[in-house]
Design brief:
This protein is an alpha/beta fold and 266 residues long. 21% of the residues lie in helices and 30% in strands. The chain is globular and about 50 Å long.
């Protein structure tokens, strides 16, 4: 299996201004110095983390989706990030997995952030997908999902792991930054997988500050990339499949995992 390169964009988001954020990310994508296989943007990258979605929601043929299609094609890279989608009277915090050929998959945030009121207007997802790209398998998470190890749990089935990389896109507040870094390392070690966490920086309209701390962790919990906190950043990291395979085969922790199922997902 070939190695895969991810470009991670840690950005300050302009509150509730889709056009300005899309322009900002267009400019950031132009600054990527070398080809990337996957480009990762933060949670709600077009609006910031809002819990009153009525005026900002769009459909899957709206401007943000069109932008993702155009940029993925132009960059010849897969682009992922979450946007607010309205469907059948429901508002969804939806992570889009946009491929260069214009095909896409999605993940709707499972664990809505009740402490921040997200559950009042948003509907939680009932799918637990694993995305594939260039032979790699990716487990998508959105922010608060990272706190729930059962939801993140990898499985080993007939010598094959469910996923290779956990990707969490976030609006994780600075006041809980210690939990962010601890959870990323823990989820990587628990699941014998790489963990990628892309977080925003800046301050939102509610006065909440975000330190970023965008991080990539290997399956043994060692950080491969960590950005400077509280600053916009664009970083690249190449993940080695041979290293992942060696760690899994050498330690064999997956063979000792407990077997279980989550009953209320499709």
């Amino acid at each position: 299996m070939q190695d895969i390169t991810l470009t991670l964009i840690q950005a300050d988001l302009i509150w509730g201004d889709r056009q300005a954020n899309l322009q900002k990310f267009t400019e950031r994508l132009q600054q990527i110095p070398a080809p990337a296989d996957i480009i990762v943007l933060p949670e709600m990258f077009t609006t910031g983390f809002v819990v009153e979605p009525e005026s900002l929601a769009e459909t899957t043929d709206g401007p943000s989706m069109q932008w993702l299609k155009e940029q993925a094609s132009l960059r010849q890279a897969l682009i992922t990030g979450s946007i607010i989608i309205q469907k059948d009277g429901h508002y969804l915090n939806r992570m889009i997995w946009m491929r260069p050929d214009g095909t896409w998959d999605y993940y709707d945030k499972r664990h809505l952030f009740t402490f921040g009121g997200e559950h009042h207007r948003f509907t939680r997802g009932d799918l637990a997908p694993v995305f594939t790209y260039k032979g790699w398998k990716f487990k998508p998470l959105i922010c608060y999902d990272l706190r729930f190890p059962v939801w993140c749990k990898n499985k080993l089935r007939e010598a094959t792991y469910d996923y290779d990389v956990l990707i969490d896109i976030a609006s994780w507040p600075d006041v809980r930054r210690n939990a962010w870094t601890l959870f990323l390392a823990s989820r990587a070690m628990e699941n014998m997988a790489y963990a990628v966490g892309v977080n925003r920086v800046g301050k939102d309209a509610n006065g909440v500050t975000f330190s970023g701390d965008t991080t990539v962790v290997d399956p043994l919990g060692n950080p491969l990339v960590t950005t400077e906190p509280c600053q916009e950043a664009l970083v690249a990291v190449t993940l080695s499949f041979s290293k992942l395979t060696h760690i899994r085969e050498h330690f064999g922790f997956g063979r000792d995992w407990d077997s279980f199922q989550i009953s209320d997902i499709r």
